[in-house]
Amino acid sequence: MRAFALAAALVAATALPGERLGIAVPVVAALMLGAVGTALRVSTLRLSFAVLAVALATQAALLDATWVVVLDLAAAWVLAGLAASGLSLQAVTAPVLRLRGAPALVPRPSERHNPALRGAGLGAIVVLPFLLLFLSADAAFAGFASDLPLPSGTSLLGRIAVLAVVLAAALGLGLAARGPSSTGRAFARRRLALAEWAIPLALLDLLFVAFVAVQLAVLFGGHDRVLETTGLTYAEYARSGFWQLLAATTLTFAVVGATLACTQPHGRRERVVLRVLLGGLCGLSFVVLLSALHRLQLYEHAFGLTRLRLLAEAVALWLGVLLVLATAVVLARAARRRVAPAAVLATSLGLLAFSLGDPDERVAERNVDRWLATGRIDLDYLSGLSTDAAPALLRLPNPQRDRATSRIRERVAGDDPWGSANRSRARARELLAEQ
Do residues 393 and 431 touch, judged by C-beta distance below 8 A? Predict the structure, then answer.
C-alpha cells in the first residue's frame, strides 16, 4: 500500500502542477486505487466502483472540457471511497478520518537511525527557502536548474503540496479499505399512524394532478395557449419553470424516503394504500420531469444549446432513472436493500456515458446545425468551448470558422509534456494543421 501511495504522489507532483490535465490523471488514479487493492476485501460491487472510478478519471486524458473533467474527478473520488469503505454515507470522509492510523504505516527506525532522519528533515526545511531565493535571484542559476529534470522554483511549493495531498489521499483510501465498513448507529423513531401519512400524501398527489392538468392544457397546448394564459412568449414560459420543476422532482425523493422511514403499515389494506399513494406520486413526478425536459427543449430551440442546458438535460434524465428506482422501492419491499448500490452504479455509469458523449463537441454540433438551418449562431460563446469542439466548429465556413476556433488555436499551440497528453487536444491540433 505504501509503495502505491508514494508512487501516486510522486507522479502527481511531477506531472500535474502547472500543466494541463491529461494522461497523468488516470495514471495517478490507478496508482491510488492500487493502494486500495492491496488492502481491499474484494467483492463484485467494490470492484465495480473501483473500475468506474478509473474510467471516470480516464476522461482527463480523453476530454479537454474542464467542467466535465472536474465532475468526473469528483465522482471518481466518491467511487474510490465506496470501493475502499463499502456502501456507506461516510465513503467520502472515511479516507480522511482513517488518516489517524497513517503513523502506524511508518516503520519505527532504530535509535541509530534517528539522528540521520532528523537531519534530513531539518535539511529539507533549511534548504528550501534558500533554493527559492537563489532561483529568483540569479538568472543563470535558474536557467541551469531549468535544464535539469527538476521542478522549477516557481512551482516547487505547488508540487510539494500536490505530493502531500495525493499521498495522504492514497494512504487514507488504503487504510479505509483495511477497516470495517462504517454503519450508522440505529436510532429510535416514532412510526406514523395511517391518517398521519395517508392524508398528506393524498393532498400532495392531488396537487400534482392539478399541476399536471395545467401542463397538459398550457405547455403542451401550443404557442397560442401560452400567450393567452400567461402573456409570455413560449421560450420565456419554458425558461421560467425548468429549475423549479427539477427542484420539485428532487423533493419527491425526500418525501418518499421520509414516508418509508416513518411509516409501518399494518395489514394488507394499509400497505396497498401506501403503495398507491407513493406510486402515484412517483408517476406524477415523471410527468413533471417530462414537462421540465419539454420546457428545456423549447428554450434550446429558441436560443441554442449551451453547456448548462446540456448538463440540465443530463440531470433531468438522471432524476428519471432515480425515479424508476424509487418506484421499485415503493412497489417491491425487497428492492430496498439493492436500491442504494443500484443508484450509485446508475449515477456513475450515467456520468461516464455523459463524458464519453463529448459534451462540448455535442454543444458545438447542435449550434452549427442550428446555424445551417436558421443562420443564427453565437460565435463568441462557441469560441470559449474546449478543443473537444474543434471537429464540429471546423464545419463552419470562413470567416465564422476562424472566429470560432481562434482560442482553440491558441490552446493547442506547441506540444504538451507527457503528463498532459490528451486525445482531444491532439486531434484538434491535427485537424487545425490540415486547414
Answer: no
